[in-house]
Amino acid sequence: MSKLLDKANSKENREAFLNRISKKAGRPRHQVKEFKPLNDLPDKVLINKSNDELLEIAKENSESVNAKVIIKKKDELARFLKEYIEKIEAKKLMLPSFSDEKWENFHLKEWLNNSGAEKVDYWTNDLSRMENENLANDADIAIGFADYLIANTGTITVTVSPEQGRGFNFLPTHYLALVPKSGLVPSTRVAVENYEKRLGSKELETSAINFISGPSNSGDIEMELVVGVHGPLDCTYLVVEDM
């Protein structure tokens, strides 16, 4: 079977196939012209803005997609998260199963044992996909990590990993993402270029990258906006100022 597939996908077979289509269509084959961008605007989006200016722009654009931006320092995170969990009355918490070192980088290692939630579950590679998704679906809130916050769209990016799977961000009732301020970028172009470099150097390996612009928004024919139908009811970006 593999030999048949190799033959079917060979260059000679493709050329013969395209030639037959060209003949039947009654027009000659042609090469697609090299793409030339009309301008360099994508490369210039917000490039002259400082990090503080980008943060203000990110806050404004995040609010426009119903996401909330909160800014805290590392030493403030544990107290804030505990108070936040109590405020929204979350009983079941979902966390990614990253190493203690990653949590310690955010000064949250001790918080793991004193989060304020009655039940804490972890998305882990030791469980099946269905088991992880069932736990996430049952969680009141998921608190995880994002790589970048894109200022001009109010979007966070999250790489899928065995510790923080694809459904981690979408299934719980509430979602909060920790984003280092150093991960603030002006545009999608910059975020994608950063990912290309990291993937190319093997620094990063992932099966998918999620671009999340606030909670899900659905509208009907009467132009009524409904938030949270296809995902969490709300989405919070917690920017860590000193990272």
Automatic annotation (TrEMBL):
<feature type="domain" description="LUD">
    <location>
        <begin position="56"/>
        <end position="240"/>
    </location>
</feature>
<protein>
    <submittedName>
        <fullName>Lactate utilization protein C</fullName>
    </submittedName>
</protein>
<dbReference type="InterPro" id="IPR037171">
    <property type="entry name" value="NagB/RpiA_transferase-like"/>
</dbReference>
<dbReference type="InterPro" id="IPR003741">
    <property type="entry name" value="LUD_dom"/>
</dbReference>
<dbReference type="InterPro" id="IPR024185">
    <property type="entry name" value="FTHF_cligase-like_sf"/>
</dbReference>
<dbReference type="Pfam" id="PF02589">
    <property type="entry name" value="LUD_dom"/>
</dbReference>
